[in-house]
Design goal:
alpha+beta
């Protein structure tokens, strides 16, 4: 059981792991050993993930989530299978943790009277500056 937050936890059986050949450095093992890890997690059918958390997860995960609600994470940063496995799980937990935090609601504010006056004054200054750059045409 992987505990993500107080209310969200994922059972080990819900995470499906596949080991694949890793691109990049690996020395003599590069073409023989499957060190990269691809984990699949069905977030749509997870009983501990609520709909609002799932909606945020869908937005946060982007291309990593399929249309069916399956999150696919590939980890090949390290040369060892164990470290890549830990990395993939940590990234999944981090992704779900981010989605579990509800966004802060924006509170609309108005600019102060002083801020409005400063803005108008700076616009007037800029206009005067531009006016002075213009060539004066004389009809003598």
């Amino acid at each position: 059981m992987i505990k993500i937050t107080n209310s969200i936890s994922v059972h080990e059986d819900e995470i499906e792991e596949h080991f694949i050949r890793s691109p990049g450095p690996g020395g003599q093992n590069v073409n023989k050993v499957e060190t990269a890890v691809q984990i699949r997690f069905d977030a749509a059918n997870c009983p501990t993930i609520k709909t609002e958390v799932f909606d945020r997860l869908k937005k946060i995960s982007g291309h990593r989530m399929t249309a069916g609600g399956l999150i696919v994470i590939t980890a090949n940063r390290f040369r060892s299978q164990l470290r890549n496995r830990e990395d993939a799980r940590a990234r999944l937990v981090d992704l779900i943790r981010q989605a579990a935090v509800p966004p802060k609601m924006r509170r609309a504010t108005k600019p102060s009277r002083n801020a409005k006056a400063k803005r108008v004054e700076s616009k007037k200054k800029r206009g005067v500056q531009k006016k002075q750059r213009q060539k004066k045409i004389s009809f003598d």
